[in-house]
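step: validate -> pass
step: tokenize input -> pass
step: predict -> running
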Amino acid sequence: MINNAFSYIFLLFVLSSVSIKIWLSMRQIKTVKANQDRVPKAFSEDISLESHQKAANYTEAKMKLSNVSALVDAALLLALTFGGILNWFHDLSSTTTSGTILSGLIFFGLIGLFISLAQLPIDLYKTFVLEEKFGFNKMSLSLFFKDLMIGLAVSAIIGSIFIVGLLWVMETAGINWWWYAWLLAMTFWFFIQYISPTVLAPMFNKFSPLNNEKLKERIEGLLKKCGFQSSGLFVMDGSRRSSHGNAYFTGFGKSKRIVFFDTLINKHSADEIEAVLAHELGHFKLKHVFKLTCFLVLVSLVFFALLGTLQQSAFIHEALNLHAFGSPSLLLAAFYFGLPPFLFLFRPLFAAYLRKNEFEADAYAAQQAPAQELIKALIKLYKDNSSTLTPDKLYSAFYDSHPPASARISRLEASIN
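step: predict -> pass
step: emit ->
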């Protein structure tokens, strides 16, 4: 239901963001298909035409699915707001119990369950049709639903604790509640980051200490050289679910650890793994993680301040067709669902910043390990993950957190010469 001028603005941004997403994905498909019959010269010695064409077909399939997902997400958003589903969930939860906090828990539980069920067909298709078709899926249907149930249970427990605290602060902390809510949110976020490596992640994957002594010795030598301390080196059973490979850092303080997918360990040489790790170490040594964390903390403060301001006006509730003005739960829902369409157009700026960080981490890695080994590792990762070597420039600029393969490798090659 359209109630005021902001309703039209919100609808315009929702439809515009969906249109842009579909337009960009169609550009990506067109560009990739136009270049699928010839491997770029820089990769012709390492990647076969068959692998290049597989990457093109995989990219096209992912883009088509992303279009469906974008349309479904937009439909869900409009159904929840203008369609009145949020109002119905709120009325249902309010009649179930008289307590504001308990009714708020039920309200957000209904929202989470509704969205999860609506998105389930897409998740199933992606895993058991798309990923299966291109040889990446290693997950059984029983494991899929086991992960789903565990994920829902963990989200329900963690989410309930956070929502109870947030609603309690909103009710008891006075007019400046948003400041205390922000402090609560940041404390909770850091706590989750701290326990994630040792408590949450092991619920889904098995983490074993790296037992390759030669590789372990080399990695520990690199860590010492870079002045980095970790609580351990672990191998994750990523091959149980997918053949995609990766490596990452997680946690902080005493819970900080380095994790390698077993697929990465099995497909890459020790030199290549060391180069990949040097790249990841670059993000820490160049304070990319710290800077990004500070940015997110400051942005969240702005968002909570805006949330506190919106509480004083029924304007946003009317715009999104939300009836119960003054309800803390509906205020949070209005903010959660109303803000993303307006943030979408800022995505290219954030992506550009992340790509800058990737170039800097590559340059750091080239100083700590042979650049040629990182090039070889990147080529293998692009090949094994069927990542396109010829992305559309505009699509890449809008979405990609990592620079195109050709750009990364040309810079690394320049560092060698």
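step: describe -> The chain has a mean pLDDT of 88.
step: cleanup -> pass
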